[in-house]
Write a structure and sequence with these properties.
The protein has 1 helix and no strands. By secondary structure, it is low in regular secondary structure.
Length: 107
């Protein structure tokens, strides 16, 4: 096709040897039961903001340099904004609007 350039993006994932998650202080111990390692940031409670894990960034940069990759001096993380419909708590369980503790909500 003339006038078009094929561009293929590859998304890769890696598990770094950190003791906490990349955007929260919650643990990452292997074999833990479901939802046992979730923090207020992980479950996106209102008013909480993520903080980037410095060790994860350092390990990722070191890995990139080790494999000869181009490592940008600046990266930007955009947090997703999820629009939630207002519902009556009588129709949904558990009621998300009443969740005020840092405990994970189990379905």
């Amino acid at each position: 096709m003339q006038g078009w350039e094929t561009v293929i993006g590859i998304e890769t994932h890696a598990q770094l040897a950190t003791t906490s998650k990349i955007f929260s202080g919650a643990a990452t111990a292997f074999g833990a039961p479901p939802n046992a390692q979730a923090s207020a940031v992980d479950i996106a409670l209102p008013g909480v903001l993520p903080v980037l894990n410095r060790q994860a960034v350092e390990l990722a940069v070191r890995f990139g340099l080790a494999i000869g990759a181009q490592v940008n001096r600046r990266s930007v993380f955009a947090r997703k904004k999820v629009a939630r419909r207002a519902r009556s708590c009588a129709r949904e369980w558990p009621c998300r609007r009443q969740a005020t503790s840092a405990r994970p909500i189990r379905a």
